[in-house]
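Can't attach files on this board, so I'm pasting raw text. These are the components:
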Amino acid sequence: MKFPVHTSPYGRLPNSVTRVMAEVLLALVPGVVALVWYFGWGVVINIAIAGITAVAAEAVILRLRRRPVGRTLADLSALVTAVLLAIALPPLLPWWLTVLGTLFAIVFVKHLYGGLGYNPFNPAMAAYVLLLISFPVAMTRWLPPEMLTDVHLTFLQTLQAIFTGQLPGALTWDAVTSATPLDEMRTQLEFNRTISEIRQSPLWGDFGARGWEWVGNWFGLGGLFLLWRRVIGWQIPVAMLAGLLVTSGIFWLFDPESIPFPGFHLFSGGTILGAFFIATDPVTASTTPKGRLVYGFLIGVIVFIIRTWGGYPDAVAFAVLLMNMAAPTIDYYTRPRVFGERENGDG
Amino acid sequence: MSDYRRIIADGLWTNNQALVALLGLCPLLAVSSTLVNGLGLGLATTSVLVASNVTVSFIRNWVRQEVRLPVFVLVIASFVTAVELAMNAWFHDLYKILGIFIPLIVTNCTIVGRAEAFASRNPVPAAALDGLAMGLGFTLVLMVLGGLRELVGQGTLLSGLHLMFGENLRDFSFSLGSDYHGLILAILPPGAFFGLGLLIALKYVIDRKIEQRAARRNTETEAPSGTAAPAAEG
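---
Top answer:
Structure tokens for the assembled complex are below.
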């Protein structure tokens, strides 16, 4: 009698790029809903603009590179890049900046380096940095969260503001927009005010700024979903948050009146989104388990350094790009020992 | 004659120091923020390159192999100093803009590279021509890259022409209009890297097109006349 012999792997999961990307998109939903709730319809419009641009750009460049268009488009990776970029952008950003950033992400950062799996830098973050450096005024025009403002733009008014730059009625840009909380904190600290004075303002909530901290929570929820689904490993998010908390904690203990407390860093800006969705990009992050710990931790440290002493209020994008550069080196020094290999030396 | 022709083609295209040899990238990337800056530094580099090539070629039979590099560096450094003083005297404003990059011409690998690879092994006229062709090829890339970054980054072209050609050309510049605020990244260092990468890619595309056309012409001319392969002139 003949017994069929199978080779490993025995258990099979339906695992594909499409599934991973679809679950990332799904995990982003709560955070996006929270963003819309606090900051209006602009987020949705930005996502639509970026999504359409990304898919179109990907299709064109795949055709130019003579690659199968349909199959590659179906992996949804362009869409994930577009959504991650769009939710990092200010809600009323002029449409052509969103288009420009998305084109840069897909064409330059992704496909000129060889397409999905070959890009050394996170496309969404590279595009964000391009826009932030090149168009600082437009990129710092954030909206205040809905409970702190009397101006609530309807969907059509938002659409008009994004596509024509016209605000309804006699509103001016200064009346509608405001600095981000991290920006505000930095400006006030430059005026030599203490943290406890600064936090008197109604802008601030329990940890970070009102509105923002809840957006962070909902993104965190999506991140836990990704962890549960094993789309991302625990190492990078945990290490990044630990890096940020430990570094800011040490400095906060020494100088609690000019360094915001660790919880503030955790719930401000793009920390949570960055830890779960951006730093964990499987292509550009470190790949070994130990390497991921180092990679994430250093991102956290760099975020704190740039936020505290650097030239920009938030730093997740810069930190991720800097560590993208370091990822191959980290991987080289943290290669896991092959089973049976001796501890040092190659036997 | 065909030898001289090849030297020129090498310098301007086939072995372009910036696009193919990727030499002298430091000044290339740092100074190419406008077309005029690129032109200024390119011409300064070209004059140093011609002068050093000629001198190295003159003394090539007297310099011992062991000490050739220090001698080359000495020759190049003297010419760079001369060019620097001349620019300070006659193009003072441009001199101030280009700043440290004029003395840094001495570290441009193109110059010592051509001295070592060409001038020290060839007679004076060929060396002079090589210096001129290589220098002009480098200048062209600097100008194209500078023009590209200037146009994208600040929406103008040929701004600052008066720095080189006198006051009456001050307004002779093209502008995209005051509505265009410019993609600042193009002026910053990353813009230079992106620009250079795109230019190199463009050169490859053009080369491949030329190759394809030549191959097609070969098969076309071969088919009717049979054996008569077209005798290339160059």
